[in-house]
Amino acid sequence: MLRKSNNSGSLEPVIFHTLNTVFMIILAVVTLYPFLNTLAVSFNSGVDTVRGGIYLWPRSWTLQNYRAVFITGTVLNAFWISVARTIIATLLSVLLTSMLAYVLSRGEFYFRKSFTLIVVMTMYFNAGLIPYYFLIKDLHLLNSFYVYIIPGLVSGFNLIVIRTYIRTLSDSLIESAKIDGAGEFRIFLQIILPLCKPVLATIALFVAVGQWNAWFDTFLFASSKQNLSTLQYELMKLLSSTMNSNSNPGMVAGMDQDSARNMITPISIRAAITIVAAVPILVVYPFMQKYFVAGLQVGGVKE
């Protein structure tokens, strides 16, 4: 009886891990399939894609879709505008938000509760889109690259997250630095910032993804200037223009193989530009993952 009980007990972890592994594999397949299918379509001949049946592997390999995306300066310029706004906005936002969070975390700052309340209120209330548009207009930010940077420099949510993390640091570190004669800027730059790498990396990823994926601000504030167009805005215009466009499979009947391979269709172009827009963030994320996971644990453990 004892031996049977031990065998029965030893099977439970095996069954659990087997079912868990199967479930995670299914979840991974379901999650990755749309991206892999889009990748396959982007490398597949446009005319062949119209026939259907493309799943995880291109049936007729071609780079013509990507050539069509970058053949004009529109998408390439939009790509560099997106890169520039993402890098600049992320660096400035992390720096300024962390500086303000450090101030609000200090007990000796008398108005910290009042300022924190004001910051929290901005997370729940806003004046609306029309007053915001007129504010941007009055600040002379319309049709300017600065409209991508200045309005979103400090986020209330990010500020609260960084402030919460800083308050978990030992006050003795700051007190020791002050005894040694360090000023507030030196304490912030040489002590607080290095210790806040996990939460800063998390916030940087949030800001970078938000900036990279943003297109509505381009539509509202910079749509009249093509040289300020972003990659996501170009993607949005492409998706809008091709949403109701359907290629006719019968039109390829009389085409020779070379003509069919070089023909571009809305579906193939849409897939190619989607991959171009998604790849940069996918490349950056693995390097930020360990900090991202650590940053998400802020406030999860209380002592």
TrEMBL record:
The keyword Calcium does not apply. It is a multi-pass membrane protein. Residues 79-288 form the ABC transmembrane type-1 domain. Gene3D superfamilies: MetI-like. It is found in: Cell membrane. The keyword Glycosyltransferase does not apply. GO terms for cellular component: plasma membrane. This is Sugar ABC transporter permease.
